[in-house]
From TrEMBL, chains A, B:
CDD domains (alphabetical): HOT
Domain Fe-containing alcohol dehydrogenase-like C-terminal: residue ranges: 238-428
Similarity-based family: Belongs to the iron-containing alcohol dehydrogenase family. Hydroxyacid-oxoacid transhydrogenase subfamily.
Protein name: Hydroxyacid-oxoacid transhydrogenase, mitochondrial
EC number: 1.1.99.24
Coiled-coil stretches noted in the UniProt entry, renumbered to this chain: none
PANTHER family noted in UniProt: ALCOHOL DEHYDROGENASE (PTHR11496), HYDROXYACID-OXOACID TRANSHYDROGENASE, MITOCHONDRIAL (PTHR11496:SF83)
Enzyme class name: oxidoreductase
Subcellular location as annotated: Mitochondrion
Organism: Cyprinus carpio carpio
Keywords of this entry: Mitochondrion, Oxidoreductase, Transit peptide
Length: 431, 431
């Protein structure tokens, strides 16, 4: 049982600077000391600031005499407005190291705060992905950022991505640049034991979709146009032999542990395995990219009207990211399957379906059924309808998907607005 | 077929800064231009300097107007003396970027040249691993180094390790520090098509042993003593859930492609798959470590008397690294198996043996037999005896293994000098 580590000799992974192990965050004060940190910005949200993951970090900072300021106003599912508030805090603080303790909302907010504090002259839209923002290159060097993920979900500790809800547009977008990649991710499985069951479920769906989408993304050698200079390679480069290793491996863990992790917060083996799976899937999709489930999730999250996330300690209406992503997954994979049926079948098989007598033509249906049955077992809301959407909303959902081309162009199957309309329609009810 | 890339949109892997694809080195001139390189040191050896891998790089440098000087005196299986000659060249050249085109011998030499040119005041032993050297920390920042591996073997493009033969000691040792890790590895499978069959075999055995040893290394959470400060974590930290992914995956590719790659230089699929396997195994062992086969290989290589490597275009006696490693592998895994029989059985199974009715107690014998049969099929020399050693040499081989504790302590089974003696004795003849 690899999570029961009897000493602080945790595993520092060669990839993506991830250090893994139960209790690994206890030594963060020493790391900060080693880095010569004198003025640390600790970011978190108001739920976590009351819980052990933040407590452990604070104790370690105190023990090692590291000075810090806390920012606990991170918004769950951040917006441009909440990003800007965190950026202001960072600009005023003149910090030399950032520490983010939380889920994707906290880590992404901290990445943005670090970025704009290092570029004080920049306008907010300068670094936001085109076509919504200007997608300018990042020229200044950022301060070190240590990410301590507390959900088993986004993999944000491994990626150069920060996502926010652009409220005017009613769609999420983000900033994607390798410079945002955290200096170090401290993946301490003990932190996931506090996740409410629905947070475990939704962040687990995020892992599932990262793995499925990166595994089925357009292969890297079919991407076009070719960049004329290697510096113009996109961060998301399509599925490739490396990302496939991560995607398959993450999928296997999800198949084995997701349900257990959701159902029993005390199942340390399941929760810590899912925590590692989120890292693996993060490395995979951070490299290969995601496609339609994620592209379509951004308007699903951004157009939220009144939906309250079950089991979340949050006062505003939200569709949690993992939920917004997974609700379209049956429709999406039914749609993409004919482009690479073997991969869709393999995914269904890893997720527990016997595919030995299935024809290639049925790959999409079979993977979709597999996903629906997982969602049903985990008592997921019955489609977009159940979170407050009706047929009338489809045009705005489609409209909000169009600018997500950076992501959606990695879909293995080309698609029109009519296709997107059909995918949203097919996702209204699942069971 | 992922190697047949129709555009320069190759896969840049999130891990370890590896860019992979057929023809990917054609753009190296542009990368150097992007980096602002004005004075490049191109290192290679005298065989490769006549072959396409170097030709392609030179054409690209010329096309993009990048100034460079060539050093082609790298010794195959480098020594302290040959390292020093390369270091002198580097010191005199005041280079701003290094490019290494070759196998492990070239890449390791280039790492050392870059290191000591960046630390002009240092003595040679300062950075060499203790107890042979002083193992001092590296404080200066090194120049960027682009590694272009032409063997499917060492994985040196992914590691912070540089190995040389310390001639006075008659044993190999090295420098191990994350700072040595190449900035970018350009893994271009086309370059492996020129490898002579024996180079493909021996470098392939290196991949096999990297995977087997890192898979069976002492688990990271059983290592001791615990470092009191995270900065003192060793680079080699024992097997862990991440390195296991790489080791298993590399082993699967070796099982499928090694023999084909050795037997048919024109089998592009096999050769390019082995090239990727060397990267995977490199990331895995660079993180987890290797153990007895590698630890014992250093005196086997260092005590060479007259053995001429078959199929190598080299004038001095050598035992090629991969050969020196693999010859003890049957004995080593028979010895270590009782500590983690499941892993030894799993490895035998991946390598093609039916283990369904094998008892745990037989795991060592079964893996050893599996290895012997692969070696026999690939016409490998029949043990240490066949490369010039006799029983009389065993004491010096054991003596040369003792200072390799940095590596050998990762053996899952503790061992005495008697054990080492027995392992060398058992490796005298294989078939
Ligand atoms: N950067 C990326 O690569 C990336 C990838 C996917 C998603 N995202 C983004 O990440 C955000 C979602 O992040 P998330 O799914 O990790 O959830 P989250 O950060 O939004 O947290 C969800 C809720 O769970 C609580 N919580 C988190 N960890 C807890 C713990 N250990 N114990 C108790 N409560 C805990 C939080 O306080 C919050 O109320 C979205 O904005 C999404 O768009 C980013
Ligand atoms: N740094 C590390 O992590 C690491 C790991 C393992 C081994 N090593 C070291 O690497 C060295 C061995 O390197 P190697 O096994 O890659 O072989 P090598 O670099 O010694 O090359 C072996 C021979 O093959 C020739 N050659 C290489 N590529 C060729 C090609 N494409 N076409 C034709 N000829 C080619 C070379 O000219 C040489 O004659 C040893 O010194 C070993 O100790 C280092
Ligand atoms: Fe996501
Ligand atoms: Fe090796």
């Amino acid at each position: 049982m690899f999570y029961r580590c009897r000493c602080p000799a945790h595993s520092q992974m060669a990839c993506s600077n991830i250090r893994y192990g139960a209790g690994v965050t206890k030594e963060i004060g020493m790391d900060l000391q080693n880095m010569g940190a004198r003025n640390v910005c600790l970011m978190t949200d108001r739920t976590l600031s009351q819980l052990p993951p933040v407590g452990v970090v604070l104790d370690s900072l105190t023990k090692h005499g590291v000075e810090y300021k806390i920012y606990e106003d991170v918004r769950v599912e951040p917006t441009d407005k909440s990003f800007k508030a965190a950026i202001d805090f960072a600009k005023q603080g003149h910090f030399d190291v950032y520490v983010a303790v939380g889920g994707g909302s906290v880590i992404d907010t901290c990445k943005a705060a670090n970025l704009y504090a290092s570029h004080p002259e920049a306008e907010f839209l300068d670094f936001v992905n085109a076509p919504i923002g200007k997608g300018k290159p990042i020229t200044a060097s950022l301060k070190p950022l240590i990410a301590v993920p507390t959900t088993a979900g986004t993999g944000s500790e491994t990626t150069g991505v920060a996502i926010f809800d652009f409220e005017n547009l009613k769609a999420k977008t983000g900033i994607a640049n390798r410079a945002l990649k955290p200096t170090l991710g401290m993946v301490d499985p003990l932190h996931t034991l506090h996740m409410p069951s629905r947070v475990a479920a939704n962040s687990g769906f995020d892992v599932l979709c990262h793995a499925l989408e990166s595994f089925t993304a357009l292969p890297y050698n079919l991407r076009s146009p070719c960049p004329s200079n290697p510096i113009n390679r996109p961060a998301y480069q399509g599925s490739n032999p490396i990302s496939d290793v991560w995607a398959r491996h993450a999928l296997k863990i999800v198949a084995k542990y997701l349900k257990r992790a959701v159902r029993d917060a005390g199942d340390v083996e399941a929760r810590s395995s899912m925590h590692l799976a989120s890292v693996f899937a993060g490395i995979g999709f951070g490299n290969a990219g995601v496609h339609l489930c994620h592209g379509m999730s951004y308007p699903i999250a951004g157009n939220v009207k009144t939906h309250r996330a079950r089991g979340y300690n949050v006062e505003h209406p939200i569709v949690p990211h993992g939920l917004s992503v997974v609700l379209t997954s049956p429709a999406v994979f039914a749609f993409t399957a004919n482009m690479c049926p073997e991969r869709h079948l393999e995914a269904a098989q890893i997720l527990g379906t016997d595919v030995s007598n299935i024809k290639k033509d049925d790959a999409g249906r079979v993977l979709a059924d597999t996903l629906r049955s997982i969602l049903y077992d985990l008592e997921v809301e019955d489609g977009l309808f159940a979170i407050g959407y009706t047929k009338e909303d489809i045009p705005s959902l489609v409209k909000g998907t169009i600018p997500q081309e950076r992501v959606t162009k990695l879909s293995p199957r080309a698609h029109t607005e009519e296709d997107l309309t059909a995918l949203f329609a097919a996702s209204m009810k699942l069971y």
